[in-house]
Amino acid sequence: MNFKQIAEELGLEEKEYFELLHLFITTAEDELEKIHDAIKEDARQKVLFEAHSIKGAAGNLGLLELSEAARRFEADAKQGNRKNMAQSFQALERDFETVKTLAGD
Amino acid sequence: MASAAQDPFDLCILDLRMPLLDGDEVLRRLRQSGLPSAQIPALACSCSVVGGAKQADEAGFDGFLPKPVRKEALFHMLNKLLTTREDSQPERGTEKVRETSQPSIDGHIIRSIRILLAEDNPVNQKLGKIVLQRAGYEVEIANNGREAVNKHRENQGRFDVILMDIQMPEMDGYTATQEIRRLESEQLQVSAKKARVPIVAMTANAMQGDRENCLNAGMDDYIAKPIKRETILEVLKKWVSNEGHV
Predict the structure, then answer these.
(1) How confident is the model over B30-69, as pLDDT tens digits?
(2) Tens of pLDDT along A50-63?
(3) C-alpha–C-alpha distance, residues B128 and B163, integer Å
(4) How far apart are CA B45 and CA B97, in angstroms?
(5) For B199-230, what is each residue's pLDDT tens digit?
């Protein structure tokens, strides 16, 4: 993941991009936590809402792999298969951790 | 000082509210002074977005910017005002020539285009603000659909475009759009003035039928996320210039 290049493609200064990236990490961390709880409570609408939000913001920041992982999880949550959901949620969390590490958070 | 100078200033920027003498009064006196600088372009600044633009227009200003003034918006505005002045130089002094190539409240005064960005995600809010402000637009944020409806109402429908996220807490983009359209049709019955703000949907759903749902709810256009800077600026241009102001 080349953040510098992504920033350039988005027409942002590097500093601006990193500010947005850190904001994203804080926000998404909170959203993942909510998804985690919502899965336990079987609150599907809540799961879908948060997954959709991560997908949108990650995509806008050019974090395409993470956005795709969120999309896959959203699709699985829509279908409602718990096993698939658990799997794609794990993948989503993993991709998020990767971004977080690369961002130096 | 400005009026006494041998070499007149090219432009004046006045705060509408100043101690002793308000900006609009300063301009009235300047315009009536008969001096070489009497007809230079005048830009008003004020903290009051809606009232300020009206006041500035009535006082004879050529442009208006609300505070806080953004660097990009100011450059854009100065450029407009100064090129207008060169173009219309021969006519100045006899008849007031005003720039009308920018969308405006009543077709007279230049002001920056105002966008209401209805979006709940803080990342998208901040990113949208940076991109749009850099392009010279003024941006106001609504955190959900209900806030968007309220802001639309409070500002008497004076946003030039609304960018509407679909999935939002409290009230989603579809419902907010329907509500705004309802308010507009009520307003139409009261004042017989046609006012329909262009609403552009933003959604991360790549679903078929999404576009139709947006149009059915009363939206005018649709952008899919991830949103590209070029796409959004192009769409904005389309809806702003379609309003018959150019």
Answers:
(1) 888 888 888 888 998 887 766 777 788 888 888 888 887 8
(2) 999 999 999 999 99
(3) 10
(4) 20
(5) 999 987 766 678 888 989 999 999 988 888 88
**SS3 sequence of A44-79:** HHHHHHHHHHHHHHHHHCCCHHHHHHHHHHHHHHHH
Q: Which of B41, B37, B28, B32 is nearest to B8 (CA)?
A: B37
Residues of A in Cβ contact (< 8 Å) with B204: 52, 55-56, 59
Chain A residue with the nearest C-alpha to that of B227: A60
Of B126, B134, B204, which is closest to A59 when you measure between CB atoms? B204
**Subunit contact B167:A24, Cβ cutoff 8 A:** no
Q: How far apart are the C-alpha atoms of B207 and A35, rounded to whole Å?
A: 22
**Start-end of H helices in chain B:** 23-31, 49-59, 71-87, 122-134, 145-154, 173-191, 210-216, 229-241
List CB contacts (< 8 A) between B225 and chain A. Answer: 55-56, 59-60
Q: Model pTM?
A: 0.73
Q: Give the residue among B121, B145, B115 at the shortest CA–CA distance from B217.
A: B145
pLDDT top residue among B13 and B96: B13
B127/A56 Cβ within 8 A: no
Q: What percentage of chain A carries pLDDT values higher than 90?
A: 91
